[in-house]
Amino acid sequence: WAKADGKSRWALYDPERNAREVARFTLSATMPAALERGEFFVDYQPLVRLDDSTIAGVEALVRWQHPEFGRLAPDRFIALAEETGLIVPLGRWVLRAACQQARAWLDAFGECAPFVSVNLAVRQSRDPGLVADVRRILDETGLPATHLQLELTESAIMDTADEPLEALRALSEMGVRIAIDDFGTGYSNLAYLRHLPVHELKMAGSFMEGLRAAEGADPVDAQIVATLVSLAHALGLTVTAEGVETAAQAERLRRIGCDSAQGWFFARPGSPADIERLLAR
Ligand code: C2E
Ligand code: MG
Ligand code: MG
Ligand code: MG
């Protein structure tokens, strides 16, 4: 990089940047062994139905319990794993862990057990082995396909060439639900949406900002949220609002007709035991 920045920068040493680069390199180089050693684990966060407050699903969120740096959030390592390609085996591991967990909840709680919603990185959605991996993991864990949802970002779905789209169709035909994650933050071809094998929109947390305060809501934000919800419903999709942090937001979303919501107001991401305590209520 120094070269590209021109000769005058050669002499500059940026210790912070250097430390960041070293940390990135270390994390990325040690990730495969960490996966082998079982340093990754999954937290779960409920998706709560707004009409009756029951738990419709839970999102699986991966964490890395690093022996030196402590617990790392996914924004520290998912992009690195995408760069190196490790996201494919890591993502497969998350999928298996989540399906095993969802199967255990199905045994313990029966029909009111939540579906599990697993994030798919762009690189995973383009992986030719995706459909076979999902099918095998469902078989081996005994989880019905209808209890699995896969979350893809708008860009993963919209820029998709024919083959990944075929994969999503195949998954959808198996009964797996497909959700668009962080909807509204990227570029979406709304007209195209109706031709996609998608079941749910997850509305990005940024839309919740204007609905936050107890007194008064930002009328434009409220209108955008209401419009997204009715668009989704017109397309036959369900809507989950992300990043719901206050009672006022939850109540406004319920009145707008949003199906479910996820956020700190209901529950932070937690262990399977935390989820079981909520399910038992
Ligand atoms: P995401 O899929 O949009 O997940 C929601 C994120 O919002 C989670 O962050 C969650 O902890 C956080 N969140 C939940 N409720 C609230 C709230 O009320 N307020 C705020 N401010 N945040 C809230 P987390 O766990 O750090 O995950 C970040 C991102 O990392 C996820 O965003 C997802 O894109 C990615 N990710 C997580 N697990 C996986 C995985 O297994 N595979 C892949 N490919 N990506 C993953
Ligand atoms: Mg997600
Ligand atoms: Mg999201
Ligand atoms: Mg996100």
Automatic annotation (TrEMBL):
<feature type="domain" description="EAL">
    <location>
        <begin position="24"/>
        <end position="281"/>
    </location>
</feature>
<protein>
    <submittedName>
        <fullName>GGDEF domain-containing protein</fullName>
    </submittedName>
</protein>
